[in-house]
Amino acid sequence: MPMSRTTAPAQNDSRPQTDSPLTHGLKQRHLSMIALGGVIGAGLFVGSGTAIAAAGPSIVLAYAISGALVMLVMRMLGEMSAANPASGSFSVHAERAIGPWAGFTAGWAFWFLLCVAVGLEGIGAAGIVHGWLPGVPEWALVAVFMLLFCGTNLAAVKNFGEFEFWFAALKIGAIVLFLVIGVLAIIGVLPDTSAPGLTNLTGQGGFMPNGSEGLIVGLLASVFAYGGLETVTIAAAESEHPVQGVAKAVRTAMWRIAIFYIGSMAVVVTLLPWTAKDIATKGPYVATLDYLGIPAASHIMNVVILVALLSAMNANIYGASRMAGSLVSRGQGPKALGRISGGVPRVAVLVSSAFGFVCVLLSYWRPDDIFQWLLNTIGAIILVVWFFIAASQLLLRRRLERESPEKLVVKMWLYPWLTWAALFGMAIVFVLMAREDGTRVQLYYTGGLTLVLAIIGYIRQRTSTQTPIDA
């Protein structure tokens, strides 16, 4: 039976109740790979090239700073999710800590972000396959991908878990291989290569060739590249052992992902001059492998990027459907979306997939206005979500210590000081976005969407007769 909005989770049950009657078909290996693979997408493989072009070698510092912020956010989210596993994740925590309006705002903003992202990933994946099969129109390829992953998510959750496990394994294997080859080249033991030393790190204008402005651009790009880690706490509610699962996944994923991101950037800028045009045009991974003379490097990376895009599509349809289902189960949306069949919110899966496909059609029909508006609107949503996570943890931690200290399986480091430090860091990122022409418009659009959702959520809260969820 689903837990009602007025029922606290049972404290003597090894499998805590969640906010919806979903199945528990995910295993620990699924969670671990979802945590590792969910954040490794095309943004890392391709998008990081633009960041390197702006920041130069200091991109390593940019990724380290943003990585530290993300690690704090994930630790906070891990603490709350281990204490109260829920398919609504941070939306549920925000509702418990701040009020229904906060859960409504964070949840529907994230749902909107994921649905638009599904469309973007579909477009990117279709573009790659269209290059191999030029006779097949891109819209048809997108339709095939949508049908495939919609079908995967309509079936049992273990199907989603298996897809993500193997997708993530391939992505992680590719990055590990890249790091091994890169380190061998850096120390000069790879055949036909010589150790570059510090030439590329200190030459071509120095470590920060474009000064603080270049570092800021790289920092902003790196912050948003880390988005996607939140999915593991959504998936944890459907795992065999939610508390242990999310605790282990969060603990192991954070430092590994930091190594993948920061390590990759360090290898690229050590081996190649940051001014190399191929870094921005081909992507840093392809450019580095071409430089090292690895045969068919571009084809290999295209396959990896395609897998990364398809993996993200699968994960985002899953995350969007579970978030929508959770919101509806708490009286925060249309009841039809919350209908669960066979342990799966199938109506939410269909609606989330359909919205993603509409975004694809808009990219073809109205790329310069409506679609661009959608892109700008989702620009800073992940920062809004992180803000709600930090604010919720700040409030819930004291409540948990007072009422249910045994639930604190994962604890935020140096509470409350590092929580405040994370909030301060987010405020700095918001300010930096407002200073940059390229990101200011995204901040405005995202701010407008967040304000509209907050107003709707507050009105619903004031007029609702339901009792907020207990902590």
TrEMBL record:
Membrane topology: Multi-pass membrane protein
InterPro entries in alphabetical order: AA-permease/SLC12A_dom (IPR004841), Amino_acid_permease_CS (IPR004840)
Segments of this protein annotated with the region Disordered: 1-23
Location in the cell: Membrane
Transferase as UniProt keyword: no
Feature: compositional bias, Polar residues: 1-21
Transmembrane segments: 31-54, 60-77, 98-119, 139-157, 169-190, 215-237, 258-276, 296-317, 347-365, 371-396, 417-435, 441-459
Record domain Amino acid permease/ SLC12A: where: 30-464
Organism superkingdom: Bacteria
Keyword list, A-Z: Amino-acid transport, Membrane, Transmembrane, Transmembrane helix, Transport
Keyword Transmembrane among record annotations: yes
UniProt-recorded name of the protein: Amino acid transporter
Species, as recorded: Streptomyces violascens
